[in-house]
Every structure is written in structure tokens, then in C-alpha cells.
Protein 1
Amino acid sequence: MSKSELPERVDAYKMADQSSQLEGVIAFGRMKRLSELVVEDGADFEAQLQFERDEEKRRLVSGSVSGSVALECQRCLQPVQYDLQSHFRLGIVYNDEMARALPGDLEPLMLLPDQSLDLADMIEEELLLSLPMYAAHEPGDCQIQTEFKPDDQDESPATEKDNPFKVLESLKRS
Ligand SMILES: [Zn+2]
């Protein structure tokens, strides 16, 4: 089952009034800020969105988005793959007063009634918030090399006896 690309912009006010749902993919290339933080272009993200009005007549957008990105490992500088998943609940507001009046479980989404909502921008914002503070491989999975050669990426990792990090480790333990 192939999912269709989410539209660029939607009328979020109208969609909330009509309790509309959207489900689809969002191409990685539509998220420029995220693109600058990754080391390889990622695949599409999948998103589900629900627009509605709550019992207080507030307009809400809730949903989830998931996908994976390759970030640079802060230890070995090689790509490390992260699965990102974000669940969000946003209250649509058009001034600070409305934003302040939102209950604690709702994040404000600032949007004027005559403004259309840029879906990629909203989803990207949520994804940026779900990025790890510190990207790194699991301990032991780093591809730390003592000397860097450009075409030995497929070689097996250094054996124990000539790996200086192992030697250090055993010194620390004794
Ligand atoms: Zn690493």
C-alpha cells in the first residue's frame, strides 16, 4: 500500500471545524532544517494528523510522525541511524493570550485564521524536538579507527591485541 504525499498547505481552521484526518508521507527533502542536521538524506516520514475541536471549542491538531535519520556520531563521526517518533497535541491560537490560556497538555500552534498551515514546517518542528541531544552509537558499536584510510570501510575492526583502546580499558580495570 503506497501512501500519498501530504499536501503542502491546508486550511487548519476549516479542517478542525470538519474533524478532518490526514494520513500520508512527507518527503525528507521538504524539511530543510532537518536536512542540514543529518549526514545522509533520509527516507520519507509517515504522518497521521487529526484536526478537531474540543469541548471548549478550541481547535486542535494532534498526530504522530515517524521515520529515521542518519546523524553524525559524536564519538566516531560515522553515521548513526536514529528512529524518530513524535506524538504531538497542538492548540491552534492566533495571539499570546490564547496561547497562555491553553491547558498544559497542549502546545500552542500560532496561526492566523486566514493563514494556511504549512504541514512540512509544523511536522519538522516536532521532529527537531525529538532529535537526541547527543547522537552516538551504542557503546562498543563505534567504528573508531587508529589511522584513517578512505577505502578500508569494509575491513573487519581491529583485533584485540592491536587495539589501543582495549589496552587502556584493561589498564583501568587492574
Ligand atoms: Zn560512533
Protein 2
Amino acid sequence: MVGCDGTRSVVRQAAGIDFPGQDTTLTGWLADVELDDPPATPLAATGPAGSFLAAPIGDGVHRLAGLSTATMHHGTGEPLTLEEVREQTRTLLGRDLGIRNPRWLSRYGNATRQVARYRAGRVLVAGDAAHMFFPAGGPAGSPDSTTRSPPTPHPVHTR
Ligand SMILES: Cc1cc2nc3c(=O)[nH]c(=O)nc-3n(C[C@H](O)[C@H](O)[C@H](O)COP(=O)(O)OP(=O)(O)OC[C@H]3O[C@@H](n4cnc5c(N)ncnc54)[C@H](O)[C@@H]3O)c2cc1C
């Protein structure tokens, strides 16, 4: 059995696999929105106030992501408003891109954890069930298949 059920993995907990690491100390924000004034290409901006990304994700929606010195100590549970996204985008990018019609607004934290072991008997954990990283630090999910496959060279036999 493979538990691929995310950072709060019920499978990991039921298997008794420890998930040591550090709690969140800073947060970024993410907004999937429509734009009246979309950039022609995906863009990234970095400055003293923080960093900002915008990229199309299909269906007329752009994903905006920011990491701002002004809001980085907000908790992950603190609601993100559309007005804050507009204000942050103006601060970090210099214009607000005509942000409207939000599909998804959230904050994400920099908690960092990794399972003490990937396998307990016939149970394996993978993906975010096995690790937690701050996405602004680099790709978190995609390297799993290459970096984690060598330690499990033996087939797991089931009946
Ligand atoms: C803002 C942001 C940007 C990111 N950018 C990148 C990037 O550019 N590149 C990259 O590689 N990674 C990136 N990541 C990380 C990446 O999104 C995750 O590592 C990846 O989505 C993890 O996939 P997963 O399938 O392991 O877990 P999840 O996507 O969390 O999926 C777990 C699934 O299990 C289901 N589930 C949970 N509990 C149960 C249950 N009890 N019963 C049944 N189903 C259950 C959930 O509904 C969900 O469908 C980013 C993350 C964030 C927050």
C-alpha cells in the first residue's frame, strides 16, 4: 500500500511513521485569478519588498504567487483577500494587472519535514505524505521519483 495522501497523511500516521522537522516561520501567498491586463509572457519580479510570479494556468486563469516582507509573518490560516492580492501585486510588481474573479486564494508556509523512514512493513509513503518544503525554495514534488526511487530497489510483495 502506498500513501500519497498529502502532508497530513492519514496513512503515514496510521503506519506510525514519524514526520520530524520544523514548523512554519514565514508564509507566501497564492492567488488563481483572471486578469484584465495579463502579461504577454510568464513573469517574475524581485526587489527589496519581496518577490512575485505570474503565469497562465489555463482556462483564462493566471496563478499569482508572492513572498512579501510586509506579509510574510501572517499565519497560514489568516484569510487572504482579493484586495490584499491587488495591493501586494502593486507593491511587488508596480501594477495590479487588473486582478478580478478569484478562483483560489491561500497562504502557504515554509514548514520543512521529512519522514524518518519511507516504509513501514507493507506501507510506503510518497509525495507530500513523505515530505514538506517551502515551494519558493525550489521544486518540491517533481524530483521525488528520481531522488527517492533508489532507496527502494526491492519489489514489495503482496499476496
Ligand atoms: C504554492 C505552491 C507552489 C508549488 N510549486 C511547485 C513546483 O513548481 N514544482 C513542484 O514540483 N512542486 C511544487 N509545489 C509542491 C507540489 O504542489 C506538491 O509537492 C505536490 O502537489 C504533492 O503532491 P501529492 O500528490 O504528494 O499530494 P497532494 O497534491 O496534497 O495530494 C494528496 C491527495 O490525497 C487526497 N487525500 C488526503 N487525505 C485523504 C484521505 N484520508 N482519503 C482519501 N484521499 C485523501 C487529497 O484530497 C489529495 O487529492 C508547490 C506547492 C505550493 C503550495
